[in-house]
Amino acid sequence: MSQLRNFDPAVLCAVAPGGHCEFGQPRAFHDRSGRVGEVSVRRCRHCGHGITHPPLADVAFLYADRASQDFQPTTAGLAHRIKRLVFRLDARRLLRQVGIKPRRTLDFGCGSGLFTRCLGDLQPGGEVVGSDFHEQPPADLAGRLYVPNAELDAQQGSYDLVLAMHVIEHDDDPAALVRRIVALGRTGSSFVFEVPNVDCAWAGVFGEAWDAWYVPFHRIHFSRTSFRAVIERSGLVIEREIDVCLPSLGRTLANLLGTRNTLPLLLVGIALHPIQWLGERLTQKPSALRIIARKR
Ligand SMILES: [Zn+2]
What we know:
Structural class: alpha/beta
Strand content: 15-25%
CATH architecture: 3-Layer(aba) Sandwich
Bound molecules: zinc ion
Largest sheet: 7 strands, mixed
């Protein structure tokens, strides 16, 4: 076993007696990026928090060409219309859950920009800004507001609502990333964080093919406990914790079959969604965890 694997980073633990996570044996994964090589995940024996090895100080190279599935590779026709409909429904639900009418909203780590666009369509009077690693906005945000991450620090304290949807699991140091995101909101502003749940019921059924593992793009694998802890430690006040059923069976089947998530698999995923939802509901082990919080 290499020295790297024996190295335990000092991750603060909400449960472990010593105050730091104690990581168990590594579980090997297939490198979905094809750029890192040997990859594995280790989980804390106490809080369930998972970390991907090897550590990557800067992950931008993984997304340089926007080819990862986080950017929802440009789809056309029916697949795009379906995604747009699903995103629009989720954007509406999210605004209801937050319960404010924000003047300025930031979608930090906006990926394909489709969700950001849907949010903007629902808030005609407000400004909705997307941000990500890249200099140029993604295709779905053409003609809309976009700021590269590198220029965001100049906008500290200027947003009423900041979203980080499936973002903080992409960084080796989520605590530092959350602090950076929190700084962008003004006093009293609202925040929405969402991450995959490492303890999802379906992860046990599908093993490595379960789409949310997504190693090495996902650097961190949050449990309910470790997700709550990282948000609380940032100083935000948690207002609501919401279980989310994120449509994942289509992509999981694509992983099992070793193909891309094509339109037929997307449709199979939609057809199976009620089963996915029911399984998560009955076990209380959802595929994703959402926290709504406020800045004091
Ligand atoms: Zn722990």
